[in-house]
Design brief:
CATH superfamily of one domain: ABC-type transport auxiliary lipoprotein component
Strand content: 5-15%
CATH architecture of one domain: 3-Layer(aba) Sandwich
CATH topology of one domain: Rossmann fold
CATH class of one domain: Alpha Beta
Number of strands: 14
Radius of gyration: 24 Å
Helix content: 55-70%
Shape: globular
Low-confidence stretches: 98-113
Length: about 550
């Protein structure tokens, strides 16, 4: 018997109850059945026919009945709870957490069944700002481990990291977010030593109920993370079942050096220019030389190789690496998403979507799963779905620039022009935040160029184009994105010159599919010179496919 929590709502299907802050909400029988069906199938779009068959079995009803129930659910849950996917159906999109019910005889666990915990991003107290990735990695691992405990409701990583670099009043946050407890701490890494300070704060009083400092050799980091998690669980008076203890102690690698290399690679692999793909792939490969069984590193390598293959910078298209990851762990969501990305790059979209659906069912809160699913949706013209996945990706990673930038094209395709501008502003803010720390970040610069062009800031867009070309003058993906920006600004000849230079240097199959959907280039489509470039590209793609 299970219940589902999404925000302040709790859905208990077996008890046929929907509550908000402990108060039962009135909901008709059909609407309740529909909600249960949609929550159980929350990881995919449901067709109208599927919903009608599930809610009105063996009864022929008009589609208007479905519309009435959708309206009733939105009135109770809010207008954004159910997303309409034009031409396909509906999807339940509120973030939820399934909670396994605890037997009534288990008093300790029953009392903490809905203990709500926020893990604030651990601060990097090292002298080296480049160690930020390490503090973030430890925070993410603690969030992941605590999430494996059925008696705890842990705030998702994407929400937790919105508090990064912010001075916070723990008691106020706890009250605002309805939390019972907050975890906070700091990480100091120096040479082969690591010091972690951590404390668990009572949300109602703002006072620590547990605090400890850990000084260890860096080689003990995995054992240290386990000890911190178990200390928090013990302070919360939650008893771990054996399966939870095993799950907490399981790690994708036991090698510290491989783990550090993977954490560094993750930062770069979300940045989609050639230089970052190369760095991410090189770091992942180094991690695999140390630990060839590191499934996450194989998945990341596959994504990096596919990105480079699309830019004609690698002979490897990533399929072998993705399949190696799946051989090690068939249920690894990142590996399924990586293979889907590879197959989409090869034009095998039906196979790609099957893998995307599986990856989403396994982990709907994975950045890779959401970003790559959105990318394949965009490539095939499924703009509404791409918006859902890419917007979720922007929430899941505060460092994301790709989804934040790409989703603007989907808003333009669906006529949501104000959202195009809102998205461009958001992307520009993120890019400027990155550039404040590293003025030579090539991907932040090129996404900034795109955002500035959408906002009509022509001079700044041109200045940033010069800056990014100075950083990396030979990357065809940078040239392509500058061409898109110039097309948006009406600089037609400059855009065509850039395309003429970069398109012969990229994988034709990948770019012929992408350009067909890229509405940043719409101003060029009727021009003979552009049409000639596309004919040449499509001919190369057809030859490669054959």
């Amino acid at each position: 018997m299970s219940s589902f929590r999404f925000g302040e709502f709790i859905l208990a299907p077996d008890e046929r109850k929907l509550t908000r802050d402990g108060i039962e909400l009135p909901l008709g029988a059909r609407a309740f059945d529909m909600l249960c069906f949609m929550v159980e199938n929350r990881h995919r779009v449901l067709t109208k026919a599927e919903i009608l068959d599930a809610v009105w079995p063996d009864i022929a009803v008009e589609e208007s009945n479905l519309t009435v129930q959708v309206s009733a659910l939105r009135k109770v849950l809010g207008p954004k709870a159910l997303a309409t996917i034009p031409g396909r159906g509906y999807q339940f999109v509120l973030t939820e957490k399934e909670n396994t019910a605890v037997p009534a005889t288990d008093t300790d666990n029953r009392e903490t069944a809905f203990t709500d915990v926020l893990v604030l991003p651990f601060t990097n107290s090292s002298n080296d700002p480049d160690q930020e990735y390490f503090a973030d990695g430890i925070t993410e691992d603690i969030i992941t481990d605590l999430s494996k405990v059925a008696a705890l409701s842990v705030v998702a990583r994407n929400t937790a990291f919105t508090f990064k670099r912010r001075a916070v009043d723990v008691a106020q946050i706890a009250q605002t977010m309805n939390l019972t407890h907050v975890v906070e701490g700091s990480v100091r890494k120096s040479g082969n030593r690591i010091r972690i300070n951590a404390q668990l704060v009572d949300g109602s009083t703002g006072r620590p109920i547990w605090a400890e400092r850990f000084d260890r050799d860096l080689a003990d980091i995995f054992d240290l993370q386990d000890r911190i998690t178990e200390a928090i669980v013990t302070a919360l008076k939650v008893r771990l079942v054996p399966e939870e203890r095993v799950a907490i102690q399981s790690r994708p690698t036991d090698n510290l050096e491989a783990y550090e290399l993977y954490l560094q690679a993750r930062y770069h692999h979300t940045r989609l220019d050639r230089r970052n793909f190369e760095i991410a792939g090189r770091l992942a490969q180094q991690a695999l030389e140390i630990d060839p069984e590191y499934d996450l590193a194989w998945a990341l390598l596959a994504i990096s190789q596919t990105g480079l293959f699309g830019l004609s910078a690698s002979a490897e298209h990533g399929l072998q690496a993705a399949e190696r990851a799946l051989a090690l762990n068939p249920d690894l969501s990142e590996a399924l998403a990586a293979k889907a990305f590879v197959l989409a790059g090869l034009g095998r979209f039906d196979e790609a979507f099957e893998l995307h659906e599986r990856s989403l069912q396994l982990d709907p809160d994975s950045y890779d799963v959401r970003f790559l699913f959105g990318r394949t949706c965009f490539q095939t013209g499924r703009h509404e779905e791409a918006i859902l996945h890419w917007e979720r990706a922007t929430e899941l990673s505060e460092a994301d620039l790709a989804a934040s930038s790409h989703v603007a094209m989907c808003y333009k395709a669906t006529g949501q022009h104000e959202k195009v501008l809102d998205t461009a502003r958001r992307t520009l803010m993120r890019a400027e935040r990155v550039l404040a720390e590293n003025s030579s970040d090539s991907y932040a610069l090129i996404t900034g160029v795109s955002a500035l062009a959408k906002l009509g800031e022509a001079e700044r867009a041109k200045q940033w184009s010069l800056r990014v070309k100075a950083v990396d003058p030979d990357d065809p993906s940078i040239d392509y994105n500058i061409a898109c920006a110039m097309a948006l600004l009406g600089e037609t000849e400059t855009a065509l010159d850039m395309l003429e230079d970069c398109l012969p240097r990229v994988d034709a199959v990948t770019f012929s599919v992408w350009i067909a959907q890229d509405n940043d280039l719409d101003a060029l489509r009727e021009l003979p010179r552009f049409q000639r470039l596309i004919r040449d590209l499509d001919a190369r793609a057809a030859a490669a496919t054959a």
